[in-house]
Amino acid sequence: MPIDNAPQLERLLSLVKEGQLTQEEFGVLQAHFDLKITPPPQGTTNQTTAAPESPSTEEKTADSFWKKPIFGNKSLVEKVTNYFAKPPVPPYSLDRYGQLWKQLETKAITLQGLENRKFGNQEFLDFFRIRILIDLNMGTFKNLKNTIDLFEVMLFSLESFVLINETEFLYRSPTQLKVYEAIADILDNHTDTTEIVLEMKAKVTPFLKEFKTDEGLRVTKNYILAIKEVSRYKSGVKLLNILRNLKSRYSLLLSTFKLAQEVLTQPIGTDLEVLEQRVSEIEETVYTLCSAMGMPRNQNNLLGHVKVFHFLALNYRNKNAGAEFKALLGDLRKWEQIAGELQSIKDTYPPNDYDVPDVFKQDFPGLPLYQKYQRFLNIRKA
């Protein structure tokens, strides 16, 4: 009689493995799998009366009958085992998995070497996290990108800005006033660096012949060079025009210059408590500058100003590593693609349905490193 439920079949199969199957149960399995014991060859008879066997031999014979060949040279145990055996993963998938695994191992070694050399400290990770938030206009740095860009230009060209404002404040001869007026007109009508340089050559250079003293000529030439230096930056011309319309801009710049030197060259830039105290000492100056730069009202306060200077300090200390970290993230994306294809193969052949090799059960090479930086990849994707 065929077996009509799975639990009964599982019980009989376990008895096969344990060697405890009875003759009756053997018959049930035979009927279920439609198997027959191979009969003895035709024309042979057993004419010899066998001697009585000892009880131990009879038990052995009874215990072993399900191992007799059926349909040729395969026993019931072999037939049942083969019937329920999981199929192997196809060779072509195993080969592809092996190729991808080697690629992932190589990529993991490269990533680990780069990470060990460059990006092991928390300060750098803080910097890059903030950099991403600024670029994507997210989180606590939302709407601060424009202000930070302007401050970056001012701080990294602060000597040029100080020289420009110092010259305009101290040197007021008629010829120099003509130079200042001509340059202001050029900056009002042009933002492209090349255009500004060409316009200055055409409209400002002729005034240099009118200077009667070497000092006046030298100071004016340095002034023109400083204007050209600032205008090289994308936001440089905009910042020049902002500062030009500020009252007491010279004193504002000197105060900011002193703070910038401390923030960029001393540890206070990354010590938030000390930085907050230092910014609060010139808060009125910073507020005036930020207002002129168009900083949003909800950010134009002490906390917002500290965030700006904190990032500027981190950016200055890690300015050479930013591009290399982006390259690291690029390699991690390649790692992610390879790992994704490996995972796809594993998902196609789950261990519940297939006889999978041990390599399918191992973690991917480089997985801890990927998990460490995954949040940066996720922010970029968002």
Structural notes for this entry:
The two termini are about 60 Å apart. By secondary structure, this protein is mostly helical. The protein has 3 domains: about 1-40 and about 65-80, no CATH class; about 90-120 and about 320-380; about 140-310, no CATH class. The protein has helices at about 5-20, 25-35, 55-65, 75-85, 90-120, 120-135, 145-155, 160-170, 175-190, 195-205, 215-230, 235-245, 250-265, 270-280, 285-290, 300-315, 320-350, 365-380, and strands at about 70, 75. Strands 1-2 form a two-stranded antiparallel ribbon. Helix 5 runs antiparallel to helix 17, helix 13 (about 250-265) packs across helix 16 (about 300-315) and helix 17 (about 320-350) crosses helix 18 (about 365-380). The radius of gyration is 41 Å and the shape is elongated.
What keyword list fits this structure?
single chain, mainly alpha, 382 residues
Please summarize what this structure is:
The chain is mainly α. It has helices at 6-18, 23-33, 55-64, 76-84, 91-118, 122-135, 145-156, 158-170, 174-189, 193-203, 214-231, 236-244, 249-265, 272-281, 283-292, 302-317, 322-348, 367-381, and strands at residues 69-70, 74-75.
What would you call the shape?
A: elongated
Average pLDDT over all residues:
80
Cα-to-Cα separation, first versus last residue = 62 Å
The biggest beta sheet reads:
2 strands, antiparallel
Oligomer: single chain
The class by helix and strand makeup works out as mainly alpha
Number of domains: 3
Using DSSP, what is the number of strands? 2
